[in-house]
Write a structure and sequence with these properties.
two-stranded antiparallel sheet, globular, mainly alpha, binds zinc ion
Length: 307
């Protein structure tokens, strides 16, 4: 399926509000015209992964799932960093994501490829008018902070400030590579978790949705590609649960915990992590020895009426 005319108007492409989305893609093509310096792609990739951390460790693992704790100040910094990714506001993002887990791959799921097709799950659900509202009722635990409500409302300020800074520092070249190219890659990298990671990969755990584990997606999203693990048990700060499941966001969170900026990182209990293993058959108890025959008295008992 695709975003088609058969959908209600509120679910069709909103041409006006989607202009910035397509304009940023067009601006990224400016990379063909602004010349080249070796540090352009370095800055683009650096800002890709820095902001991906803001989205995955901040918007996702902290604000959506509360999988670790931090101070109010660092909480704001995480929200600010994630907001520079230009994926709407932190409260909007986390509230919608909580709904994704509540209804994952069921008809009410906001971005299920099983229900609505690949393009809807990748970008369609963002580019229509229907999902613009921040579901504050789903994120009351963070909506109580005025600084987060402000950041959620003025979510365009941080990405515009970042773009302006890049332009002032390095002119058009750094603006195009550091912001536009980097942001387009960052958008589609993030969106793969809503689309591809419910389609391609392996399933270790039996969940009611189609979530998959995918090594490649884990590399480009700092660990979010272990999506089947995550849907099976969503409240952990790590999503790679075995040593070979590379999880860049968790490694960075671990470093931050050593310097005291975050704490209480939740990890899966062993019985959850090993829930996919077939249960070993119970060891059969050794057969009990046959009961001994009753010992009979050596001499028959004789009833003596005279006794
Ligand atoms: Zn999912
Ligand atoms: Zn999640």
């Amino acid at each position: 399926m695709s975003v088609s005319a058969s959908r209600p108007r509120s679910e069709r492409l909103d041409r006006i509000s989607s202009i910035p989305f397509f304009a940023v893609h067009l601006a990224a093509l400016g990379a063909l015209f602004v010349g080249f310096h070796w540090y352009y792609p370095v800055v683009a990739i650096g800002l890709y992964y820095l902001r991906m951390f803001g989205v995955t460790a901040g918007f996702h693992r902290y604000f959506s799932h509360r999988s670790y704790k931090t101070s109010r100040g660092f909480q704001f910094l995480l929200a600010l960093l994630g907001t520079t990714a230009a994926q709407k506001g932190v409260l909007w993002w986390a509230a919608h994501h909580r709904d994704h887990h509540k209804f994952s791959d069921q008809p009410e799921d906001l971005h299920s490829p099983r229900q609505r097709g690949f393009w809807w799950s990748h970008v369609g659900w963002i580019l229509c008018a229907k999902n613009n509202r921040t579901k504050t009722e789903r994120i009351g635990d963070f909506a109580k902070y005025p600084e987060l409500r402000w950041l959620n409302k003025y979510h365009l300020v941080p990405p515009v400030a970042l773009a302006t800074l890049l332009f002032l520092v390095g002119g058009w070249g750094l603006l195009v590579w550091g912001f536009f190219v980097s942001t387009v890659l960052l958008w589609h990298g993030t969106f793969t978790i809503n689309s591809l990671s419910h389609v391609f990969g392996s399933r270790r755990y039996q969940t009611s949705d189609d979530s998959k584990n995918n090594f490649l997606l884990a590399l480009i999203t700092l660990g979010e590609g272990w999506h089947n693990n995550h849907h099976f048990y969503m409240s952990t700060a790590n999503q790679g649960w075995f040593w070979w499941e590379i999880d860049g966001s968790y490694y960075a969170l671990k470093l931050l915990s050593w310097v005291g900026l975050v704490r209480d990182l939740r990890t899966p209990p062993k019985h959850i992590r090993d829930a996919h293993r077939p249960v070993a058959p119970a060891v059969a108890a050794p057969l009990a020895p046959p009961p001994k025959p009753l010992a009979l008295p050596a001499a028959p008992i004789v009833f003596d009426p005279a006794a």
